[in-house]
Amino acid sequence: MSFSRKVKEELLKKSFTAIEKTFKIETVETERDRKRLREFFLKRASITDPEKDHHLEFVCRGKEEASEVSGLLSRFSLRPRATERGGYCIIYLKDASEISDVLNIIGAHKALMDFENVRIRKELSENVNRRVNFEAANISRTVRASIRQTEDIRLIEERIGLERLGEGLREIARARLRRPDASLEELAETVEPPIGKSGANHRMRKLSRIASDLRREGCPSTGIREIRKNQAL
């Protein structure tokens, strides 16, 4: 059974008087608007299964009817949109919270609970997926950076030896070789005294420049000049 069908069957099983008892009616006009919107829902509306999408529409016979439906929704502070399809005027809502409001207004409270449960579950799932994707991207960046840094350090070690580096550069280089899977924050905590992530990143960038010079020149001279400029690191 479609979600639209379930909503309409719920409404048809209740008298509107029973539905109205659940609301604190502010004015006669508000009560009349709720009743009229409920009638339009039963005759003209369809609502997409919330598992698939958020869409509620009223298929109206003419602009006058469409204007009335749009006015009813607007009086409940909703923001309906309009289009035309197959000679009919379509008044529709795409916002999930506004669709929930309509279900509440017309008194379809069981359907409202079902709709909200699906909505919450989907939001939680989407949040988890975003978090997983974010973490996976971070891990991927860490791995790529580690591979690149390890290659740079191995090159320096082979060409000129790590002992030619300043103490700070030598220490972070050896820490990376010991822990190729560690993040910069983790490496920063292993040196003495501990430094921050920015400090570790600064030293890695220095090592990268030395390795780049060695690759470009094919000899250690340029790299050694870079080392001498940064002996204090």
Describe this structure in words.
The chain is α+β, with helices and mostly antiparallel strands. It has two domains: 3-113, Endonuclease I-creI; 131-229, no CATH class. It is 67% helix and 8% strand. The chain contains ten helices and four strands, in the order αααββαββαααααα. The chain has helices spanning 3-12, 16-20, 28-44, 63-75, 96-105, 109-159, 167-178, 184-190, 197-217, 221-229; strands at 45-47, 56-60, 81-85, 88-93. The chain has a four-stranded antiparallel beta sheet. The radius of gyration is 33 Å and the shape is rod-shaped. The termini are far apart. The model has no long low-confidence stretch (mean pLDDT 87).
What's the layout of helices and strands?
Blueprint: H1 3-12, H2 16-20, H3 28-44, E1 45-47, E2 56-60, H4 63-75, E3 81-85, E4 88-93, H5 96-105, H6 109-159, H7 167-178, H8 184-190, H9 197-217, H10 221-229
Antiparallel strand pairs: 1-2, 2-4, 3-4
